[in-house]
Specification:
The chain is an alpha+beta fold. The chain folds into three domains: 3-155, no CATH class; 199-275; 278-427, Histidine kinase-like ATPase, C-terminal domain (Heat Shock Protein 90), CATH 3.30.565. The chain is built from eleven helices and ten strands. It has a five-stranded mixed sheet, covered by helices on one side. It has a three-stranded antiparallel sheet with strand order 3-5-10. A hairpin with an 8-residue loop joins strand 8 and strand 9 (415-420). Helix 6 packs antiparallel against helix 7 and helix 7 (157-237) runs antiparallel to helix 8 (241-275).
């Protein structure tokens, strides 16, 4: 786990008020039911009035949270106050009911776990330390378990410390899990947002192009009318040199506007053909050519004479996805990359081979996750197998593709296999 995930800042960290309120009501109700069952049903005597007071204090703080706190999202500092009050309240209740030997003592770690999921690392550490301190105190200072005769029920110290140790281990483990889970969830959310931004920008550009073409078409008729009228005026008023000069200027500017609009319309037609249908072979050739312009490595497209010519929709998703995986092959290869296009009646397949170090064993099953790191010495720490690969894989899968990643190709490096069903595309 990277340090950015571990040591989160207070920015954009908050806890939903309604969520916390409901959780606290559940805890308070559970405490009330538990003490009443033990006291009245099991008939075990303990300070129940004091226990009621402690539970009532917890209820008051929750009522204050629900009705007096006006914000819906509790910031780090504010949320930590209520979690700390829960920690103290539960510690007092455990003190009255057997301390560390109370079967419910493990619930003391819940505030720290909630903090690890929603709040900052600093808050989580503080609550963790306070929780550990409370557990230590409850190991030595507490009222005897209800109904237990101290002379008959003797608990060895090593057992108490065993319970303490087990709860602390649970605290550390679950807090780390909460931090890790929260960090990964946030990363995936950011990755999906970036994915949506990429698609939105592409379609926004496409929409703007369509609007420009529509505007060009709409303005064509008025400009043609102006041109005709101007020419008729020149015939009638041509004897006046000054007026004739102005009319010529009007005609020339009208013609210029018409030419500009024709170019816009023509460009849009070209863009439409770019966006709509293109042979898969030609698209791969264009992508490869773009990398050849910036790299001295040898990049070959094989099976160019495949008889089954496949046309696909030239969508931003497919273009970005293919560019990402071919670009990764160029980045990690030593000198050679092969892109093999195969197609038949059952499958359309693109195999991207390179002669690089290959995909490390420790991440081959994680490829496609937003952020991954390899321990392999053959790859740099910033190898770029994270967000870009996640976006590329997700975009291609949205277009019906199936992706496989293998450690060794025929060139000795990585192998990426991208396949579609022929029904996914239009054959020509």
């Amino acid at each position: 786990m990277d340090l950015a995930t571990l040591f989160r800042t207070k920015e954009n960290l908050n806890l939903d008020k309604n969520t916390l309120t409901i959780l606290r009501y559940i805890a308070i109700f559970g405490q009330f039911i538990a003490v009443n069952i033990v006291f009245y049903f099991l008939e075990l005597e303990f300070p129940i009035i004091k226990s009621y007071v402690v539970i009532f204090i917890g209820l008051l703080t929750n009522i204050y949270l629900q009705f007096r706190v006006k914000v819906n999202q509790l910031k780090d500092t504010y949320a930590s106050f209520f979690l700390l009050s829960d920690l103290i309240q539960l510690s007092l209740l455990l003190y009255l009911t057997g301390g560390i030997l109370n079967p419910f003592s493990f619930l003391l770690i819940i505030p720290a776990i909630v903090s690890s999921t929603f709040l900052s690392m600093g808050t989580t550490i503080i609550l963790g330390v306070i929780t550990s301190f409370m557990l230590f105190l409850l190991t030595h200072f507490y009222l005897q378990l209800p109904g237990m005769d101290p002379s008959k029920f003797i608990v060895p110290n090593f057992y108490k410390f065993g319970v303490l140790t087990s709860i602390l281990i649970g605290l550390i483990f679950l807090s780390y899990f909460g931090i890790r889970f929260s960090g990964e969830t946030k990363k995936r959310s950011e990755a999906l947002n970036k994915l949506q931004e990429v698609i939105a920008k592409e379609y926004e550009l496409e929409s703007l192009g369509g609007q420009a073409a529509a505007a060009a078409h709409s303005l064509g008729t008025p400009l043609a009318t102006i041109s005709v009228v101007a020419k008729e005026l020149k015939k009638e008023l041509g004897n006046d040199k000054e007026i004739s000069k102005d009319i010529d200027l009007l005609i020339s500017q009208t013609k210029r506007c018409s030419e500009i609009l024709k170019k816009i319309s023509k460009k849009q037609i070209e863009e439409d053909s770019f966006i709509n249908l293109i042979k898969l072979e030609d698209l791969l050739e264009e992508i490869i050519t773009s990398f050849k312009e910036t790299s001295s490595k040898k990049i070959d497209l094989l099976n160019k004479n495949d008889q089954n010519k496949i046309s696909i929709q030239r969508t931003p998703e497919i273009i970005y996805g293919l560019r990402n995986f071919i670009g990764n092959a160029v980045k990690f290869s030593k000198s050679k990359i092969e892109v093999n296009l195969k197609s038949d009646e059952k499958m359309i397949k693109i195999e991207i081979n390179d002669d690089g170090p290959g995909i490390p064993e420790d991440i081959i099953n994680k490829i496609g996750e937003p952020y991954i790191k390899s321990k392999s010495k053959e790859l740099s720490p910033n190898s770029g197998l994270g967000i870009g690969t996640f976006l590329g894989k997700t975009l291609l899968e949205r277009q019906g593709a199936n992706l496989q990643f293998k450690r060794n190709s025929k060139l000795g490096g990585a192998l990426v296999v991208i396949s579609w069903s022929p029904n996914s595309f239009t054959n020509v």
